[in-house]
Each structure stands twice: as structure tokens, then as C-alpha cells.
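ok new one. same drill as before - C-alpha cells go in, u give me an amino acid for every spot. 333 of them this time. try not to just spam alanines like last time pls lmao
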């Protein structure tokens, strides 16, 4: 299997004598999505390029994961900031050769690649995420120390995707919702809908089939609308902040007065979105399917059904290139 290598260079360090030209971290991708998961081994190397022989005290690399949330609200004339964090793991190792003690190493001029390897924890950590008021972040950071010199530093983020820990009955549980409404302003009659989903769990790239029936017994025209949205919830102490983003929106066919319509609407679950996150104490990422009956001059009937979005299982498909999924770059998820 071909190993895809991802390289990112941070903090190119220049001292007065220009001794260290490059100090960077490279790591090796395990798949075409460049993601890591429970128990994976993350391998790579610290790159040091120097112009002349240099004495090194130590070179260390750290792998860590944590979550942070923070937001500020106005309370009268004061601003109050709510924040919290959660640490998942932190592992540090020296990348100097095993037969070299810290403080006794001299590197000759040229390029040096110092290898490292970390095994990520097996327990279910939450997936990488960046939201409106918080993030779940996984990174590698390196530190090079020299006698009588300031340390050189580098860092690079990597994407962690948690393996699903939902049981099969939860993922295959069907969803059902119904709504009934009388139309009374400048019209008369009744509008009703009944919606069914065959299951609750969907992988990114999978199609979601909405079945059901809409009955328009009113004198109004109605238009069904289908929305998949993401709900981000952030927690700090006893406070909570919620942010929602629509990730897919489609319109159905108009129903005129005295019409009954059977539904079998197909919606693509977009690629590139964060899987559902329920295993983080300070933030959650959830998804809903919302079906709206758009009716003039009255409150629209709405049904919301929960969805569990799972990570892609297997090689990434090229459905986006084929135009089957919306462009998510503009959604800033």
C-alpha cells in the first residue's frame, strides 16, 4: 500500500548566524483522506536543516489532543466570558538517537530527518472539529533546544476521526414524525404530513430517503422544503451556547389545494462534514432533518428528525467531482 506523506513546515527559525535554516515536522498519511483513528500509529520525522555543525541539547516531539470552548456575552455594562477545556492525551518523546544522551549531540551541516512514532489511544476520543465557539484539536509539536540559544519550535495539526461506537439497533432505528395544522387566516381547511426515515445512522456520501405523505385539504398552495442542519452545542459550567448551520436545503414540488402527495425524496448526505460528536463533555455536534411545509400567511408546520452522521468507511469516493454533492467550501464547517 502506498504511503501518502503530508508535510507542513512551521516556524522556520533564523538565528543571527543563520545556523538553523529549517525546523519542521512531517508525518505519514494512512489513507487518502489523511485521517487517523483509534489505536492508529502516527509516524513521521522532525526535519532539521543547518548550515554548520551545531551542538544540540535535545529534540523532542509531542502528540496531544484537547478541546476548548469560549464565548463572551454582554450582561449590562459588563462582558462575561465563559470557557472550559478538556485534555485527552499528551505523549512526549526525544527523537535523538538512542545511544546519544541529551546535551551530548552535535549535528553536522546539512539536512537531518529524526524519526518518531506515536500510538494513538484506543479509547473513543472525539473527532477533530472547529466550530463557532470551540474546537477539538489534535497536533504534533516539536522543540529543539541548544546551549545559550532560544529554542526552535514547530507544530502541525492532524485530523482524528473517531470510529463509531453506536450499536446497530441505534443506527438502524427508524424515525417517524407527523404534523397536523388547520389553516384559518384568509383561508380554510387542513394541512397534514407524515414522515418516515428507514434508519437513524448515515455515512457521509450516503443517500437519505424520506418517505411519507402530505395532504393539502386547505385552500392554499404549499411547498415542502427539506433541510439537513448541523447543531453545535458548547458548554462551560452551567452555561450553554448553541449555533446551527444548514448544510443541505432542497425544495419539493408545489401542492395545490385538495392534493394528496406520496413522498419518496432522496437527499445526499454531504461529504466533508464532521461526524456526530456525543463523546465530548464541553461540546456536541448533532444533525437534524427538518421538513417544512411553506404556507403563506400562517405558521409553517415543521417536523424535525434526528440523524447520526458517521465517518466514511473505506476509500473516499469522488461523488463531489461528479456533482452529486454540494460544494461545502462555502459552508465553513
Amino acid at each position: 500500500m502506498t504511503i501518502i506523506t503530508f508535510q507542513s513546515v512551521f516556524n522556520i527559525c533564523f538565528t543571527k548566524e543563520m545556523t538553523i535554516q529549517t525546523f519542521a515536522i512531517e508525518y505519514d498519511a494512512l489513507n487518502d483522506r489523511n485521517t487517523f483513528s483509534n489505536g492508529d500509529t502516527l509516524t513521521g520525522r522532525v526535519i532539521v536543516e543547518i548550515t554548520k555543525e551545531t551542538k544540540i541539547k535535545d529534540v523532542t516531539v509531542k502528540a496531544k489532543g484537547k478541546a476548548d470552548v469560549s464565548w463572551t456575552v454582554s450582561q449590562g455594562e459588563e462582558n462575561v466570558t465563559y470557557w472550559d477545556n478538556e485534555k485527552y492525551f499528551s505523549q512526549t518523546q526525544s527523537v535523538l538517537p538512542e545511544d546519544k544522551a541529551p546535551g551530548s549531540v552535535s549535528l553536522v551541516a546539512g539536512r537531518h530527518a529524526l524519526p518518531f512514532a506515536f500510538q494513538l489511544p484506543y479509547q473513543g476520543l472525539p473527532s477533530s472539529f472547529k466550530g463557532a465557539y470551540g474546537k477539538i484539536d489534535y497536533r504534533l509539536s516539536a522543540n529543539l533546544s541548544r546551549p545559550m540559544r532560544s529554542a526552535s519550535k514547530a507544530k502541525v495539526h492532524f485530523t482524528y476521526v473517531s470510529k463509531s461506537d453506536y450499536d446497530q439497533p441505534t443506527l438502524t432505528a427508524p424515525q417517524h414524525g407527523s404534523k397536523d395544522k388547520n389553516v384559518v387566516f384568509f383561508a380554510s381547511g387542513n394541512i397534514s404530513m407524515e414522515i418516515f426515515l428507514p434508519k437513524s445512522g448515515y455515512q457521509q456520501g450516503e443517500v437519505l430517503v424520506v418517505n411519507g405523505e402530505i395532504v393539502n385539504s386547505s385552500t392554499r398552495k404549499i411547498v415542502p422544503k427539506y433541510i439537513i442542519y448541523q447543531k453545535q452545542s458548547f458548554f462551560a459550567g452551567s452555561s450553554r451556547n448553541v449555533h446551527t448551520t444548514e448544510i443541505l436545503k432542497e425544495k419539493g414540488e408545489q401542492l395545490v389545494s385538495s392534493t394528496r402527495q406520496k413522498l419518496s425524496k432522496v437527499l445526499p448526505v454531504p461529504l466533508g462534514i464532521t461526524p456526530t460528536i456525543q463523546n465530548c463533555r464541553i461540546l456536541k455536534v448533532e444533525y437534524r432533518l427538518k421538513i417544512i411545509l411553506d404556507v403563506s400567511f400562517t405558521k409553517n408546520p415543521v417536523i424535525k428528525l434526528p440523524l447520526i452522521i458517521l465517518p466514511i468507511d473505506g476509500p473516499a469516493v469522488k461523488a463531489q467531482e461528479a456533482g452529486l454533492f454540494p460544494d461545502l467550501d462555502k459552508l465553513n464547517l
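The chain has two domains: 4-160, 168-327. and btw The chain has a mean pLDDT of 86.
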